[in-house]
Amino acid sequence: MSLELLLLFADRIGTFVFALSGGVAAVRRDMDLFGVITLAFLPAVGGGTLRDLLLDEPVFWLADPWVLGIAAAGGVVAFVAATPVDNFKPLRWADAAGLALFAVTGAAKAQELGYGMPIVLLMGTITATFGGLLRDVVANREPLVLKEDIYATAALFGALIYWLLSLSPLTEALAFAGGFAGALLLRGAAIVWKWSLPKPRA
Amino acid sequence: MSLELLLLFADRIGTFVFALSGGVAAVRRDMDLFGVITLAFLPAVGGGTLRDLLLDEPVFWLADPWVLGIAAAGGVVAFVAATPVDNFKPLRWADAAGLALFAVTGAAKAQELGYGMPIVLLMGTITATFGGLLRDVVANREPLVLKEDIYATAALFGALIYWLLSLSPLTEALAFAGGFAGALLLRGAAIVWKWSLPKPRA
Amino acid sequence: MSLELLLLFADRIGTFVFALSGGVAAVRRDMDLFGVITLAFLPAVGGGTLRDLLLDEPVFWLADPWVLGIAAAGGVVAFVAATPVDNFKPLRWADAAGLALFAVTGAAKAQELGYGMPIVLLMGTITATFGGLLRDVVANREPLVLKEDIYATAALFGALIYWLLSLSPLTEALAFAGGFAGALLLRGAAIVWKWSLPKPRA
A-B interface: how many C-beta pairs under 8 angstroms? Predict the structure, then answer.
């Protein structure tokens, strides 16, 4: 399998797993089938959509509507099987891999357009986490990504590693792999050891 | 009256009725005049605005600011007469007609730009329903469109009928009328017989 | 100091003060460091970002990422010192000045692009207030700007004064100063005498 095909395949998996998270959240809020599918779309494609709007690039799924089908499929699976999906532990790791992947692909898109570090890191973080934020805002619950856990920070870290490596003489593929691994390791460590960011003393 | 003039007229009515729904929601949340007008804007122009941003088209009201005046007028009417507006039953049917109209105009815009079925259906649905979703998110209540009733589904159905007919040798006007009628009939049936989409077993 | 430099300086201060408001809101909602910085970004750059997306202009901070650093700095300050920041009364006046400034710069951007009164006023108001609205929506609290106080109205008023003066033979700088003063005076009066917009009788 070529690298490009592998990436495409991984991107599809990440989209599907992110969609599951939105679908499950919708089921928990007693939404109907349309609501479940809508909430599946938000984490699956929301981050990349905002990235493209901000960068004034064509929204990625306009030229690749299969993504929408995969997001909808994630919603349907959550609709018929929310509880087993929610209890299926390996999904946390698939979610972590999706986070790491989207952080690096988002950063790479800004990098290719010639932007400097701040925009590259911001776009990596937005691509990986903004969809989940939208999911929580629309479900009218407090956004978890803003309160708990090392999640967005892992995306930011992966984007930073990618950016640093892309300055080095390493190939793009290695920079990509390094950023992905960085985000995944930090997120994984946060899952295993329940790391959290500091909170202010109230 | 020419077809174009009729459509323009219907679009104005739809905008006004959608604005009323936002204004009434704002009054119910004890908002002030600015809040009522802001919440009138969201359902009135929010869906079409998002559609245009996603399609990278100029936002429709930039070239037609009358729409903004009509939305503001809907807000003012809701401000001074929220309870009679809310109790005025025929408004449900005007809202259904607005939903059907925006579903078809949104779908037609994507169709004209050359997009295929998934984008056409998505844009029809977004144009018709996303503004109402924004209204509920900003009013900090759970989005009704995601929980109850056949509403967004009627928009999706109308967009589908339009898309199917636009492949046939029928004229654009007939495809338009068919999509409009399809959405209106399904929404009307849902109002009369209180149809809802299935919900997951919790 | 030239006028341009003064404006740039004022813009930086306004961004920082708006960021503080978001950061403090996040601390009050028990968010972690990432959440505090995210909520600092929303009021600091959210309004101008939406304005640029709607006008199909390049998002302003893409070419000026220092803005992002200033917004992040506001978040960090709120994180370590939310209570003193919140109790520091002069900040209300800095916030009022930020509101007045963003109203005029937002209006001026639309004006320069050749738009008429409705769009100029709308963009002034959006630039000045939409970020605060986003802050409240993401923090899952009812948007204060829609309920209390003369706030958005002051932005609208400043944009109107600017627009009127820009039609007169006065220089752009004077139109700018007039709009700024108008918004600041109205907002200041609302702070001192606790003015509010009318609310509907429920």
Answer: 68
Residue A115 lies in a domain: yes
Length in residues, chain C: 202
In the three-class reduction of DSSP (H, G, I as helix; E, B as strand; rest coil), residue C145 is classed as: helix
How many domains, in total, are found in chain A? 1
User: Residue C198 falls within a domain, yes or no?
Assistant: no
Q: Find chain C residues with C-beta within 8 A of B73's C-beta.
A: none
Whether C91 and C85 have beta carbons less than 8 Å apart is answered as yes
Put simply, the answer to whether C54 touches B59 (Cβ < 8 Å) is yes
Pick the more confident residue, A117 or A202: A117
Select from C37, C42, C45, C62 the residue whose CB has the most chain A CBs within 10 Å, as the one to mutate to test that interface.
C62
Say if A142 is an interface residue toward chain B (CB within 8 Å): no
Residues A3, A13: Cα–Cα separation, whole Å: 15
Sequential DSSP letters for C125-141 = HHHHHHHHHHHHHHTTS
Which domain covers residue C119, as residue numbers?
A: 3-193
Question: B72 to chain A, minimum CA–CA distance in Å?
Answer: 25
Contact assignment for C32 to A142 by CB distance below 8 Å: no
Q: Please compute, for residue C14, the number of CA atoms within 13 A of its CA located in the half-sphere on the CB side.
A: 27
Nearest Cβ partner for C200 among B34, B82, B137: B82
**A114, burial (CB in 10 Å: exposed 0-12, middle 13-18, buried 19+):** exposed
CA distance C177 to chain B (A): 25
Name the minimum distance, in Å, from the CA of C140 to any CA of chain A: 6
Choose the closest CB to A116 out of C34, C65, C79: C65
pLDDT in tens, A26-66: 998 889 898 899 999 999 999 999 999 999 999 999 999 99
R_g of chain A computed on alpha carbons: 16
Mutate to test the interface with B, among C56, C120, C146 (most CBs of B within 10 A): C146
> What is the distance between the alpha carbons of residues C62 and B151, in angstroms, rounded to a whole number?
39
Whole-angstrom distance, CA of residue B154 vs CA of residue B189: 10
Nearest 5 degrees, angle CA B150-CA B54-CA B69?
75
Question: Distance, in angstroms, between A65 CA and closest chain B CA?
Answer: 6
Q: If we measure between CA atoms, which residue out of C113, C197, C109, C94 comes closest to residue C154?
A: C197
Summarize pLDDT for A87-102 with one digit per residue, the tens: 888 888 888 999 999 9
CA B96, chain centre distance (Å): 8
Taking residue B3's Cβ as centre, other Cβ atoms within 10 Å add up to 11
pLDDT digits 0-9 by tens, B98-124? 999 999 999 999 999 999 999 999 999
Hey, what's the torsion of the CAs at A167, A168, A172, A176, to 10 degrees? -80
- The answer to whether B32 faces chain A, any CB pair under 8 Å, is no
Distance of alpha carbon B13 from its chain centroid, rounded?
Answer: 11
Is B198 within a domain? no
Contact across the interface for C119 and B26, Cβ inside 8 Å: no
Per the CB < 8 Å rule, is B147 touching A29?
yes
CA distance B20 to C91: 37
Q: So what's the ipTM on this one?
A: 0.91
Cα distance from N-terminal residue to C-terminal residue, chain C: 52
What local confidence, expressed as pLDDT, does residue B202 receive?
53
CA–CA dist A162, B68 (Å, integer): 45
- Whether residue B202 lies inside any domain: the answer is no
